[in-house]
Amino acid sequence: MNQEEFYDKMWCEVWNDMEKHNPTAQHLKLLIAKEINRSLPLQTLLDVGCGAGFNIKSIVEQFPEIKVLGTDLTENICQIASKNLRKYGQVSICKLNIEINCLNQMFDFILCNQVLEHIKNDLSALKNLRQMAKKHILITVPSGKYNSTSLINGHIRHYTESELKSKVIQAGLSIIKIYSWGYPFHSLYKNTLAALPSSYQSKIGMGSYGFWKKLLSKSIFWLFYFNMSGRGDNIICLCEKK
């Protein structure tokens, strides 16, 4: 299975409900909204690796004045996002492989949420993000131990703060702020899930979410409010052009 086939399969069969209900994804939406709010006013925003468009939906409902473009790797994923976001006139979607290309446009704010860990040449991707940036780029990536869950989800690597800083600076960007999030409860959740057999990891964290799975996810979501900012297995980095 090639890269495009893998991500088509994941968005069509595995990640859709996870992105809607997974407690980590929901808390990342909150962190993203905070950083967008601090960067206002904004006219344009680019979401690179937008997937099914759930982050965009959250953004345009909170910031309806911002014109948003979402991109992803394949036409199939873009069609899923376009369908989910069809009622939002300020949103458009197009295909883009950020590892090898950039758009001939510039944006006030670029979001790259949980994407770089999937890309072999992440430095090339960062340079392409820089080419399209007028102002801020917000990057989130997983950190902590690379494990079986990482492999299932197509991660090539996890980052430390120092590794991400180095890549960002090499790409010609300067760091406004960088911090980790998720300790202790997200870290416990992640490590517990990774300790299970792969078949159970897929059943619990991915796939379709019925009533009990949604209830469990919502309970963990509220627990995650007690996570610390400054420690944890997710890194949030806000940067800009030098």
Rg for CA atoms? 17 Å
Number of helices: 10
Helix/sheet category: alpha/beta
Q: Count every beta strand, where a strand is a DSSP E run of 2 or more residues.
A: 8
Q: Report on the biggest sheet.
A: 8 strands, mixed
Sequence of strands across the biggest β-sheet: 3-2-1-4-5-8-6-7
Multimer state = single chain
**Integer average pLDDT:** 93
Structure explained in plain terms:
The chain has 242 residues and is α/β, with parallel strands linked by helices. The protein has helices at 3-21, 23-39, 54-62, 75-84, 122-132, 148-152, 161-170, 185-195, 198-205, 211-223; strands at 44-48, 67-72, 91-95, 107-113, 133-142, 173-183, 228-229, 234-241. It has an eight-stranded mixed sheet with strand order 3-2-1-4-5-8-6-7, with helices on both faces. Helix 2 crosses helix 10. The longest helix is centred in the N-terminal third of the chain and has 19 residues, at 3-21. The N and C termini lie far apart (39 Å). The model has no long low-confidence stretch (mean pLDDT 93).
List the helices and strands and how they pair.
Elements: H1 3-21, H2 23-39, E1 44-48, H3 54-62, E2 67-72, H4 75-84, E3 91-95, E4 107-113, H5 122-132, E5 133-142, H6 148-152, H7 161-170, E6 173-183, H8 185-195, H9 198-205, H10 211-223, E7 228-229, E8 234-241
Parallel strand pairs: 1-2, 1-4, 2-3, 4-5
Antiparallel strand pairs: 5-8, 6-7, 6-8
Helix pairs in contact: 2-10
Provide the descriptors you would attach to this structure in a database record.
eight-stranded mixed β-sheet, alpha/beta, 10 helices, 242 residues
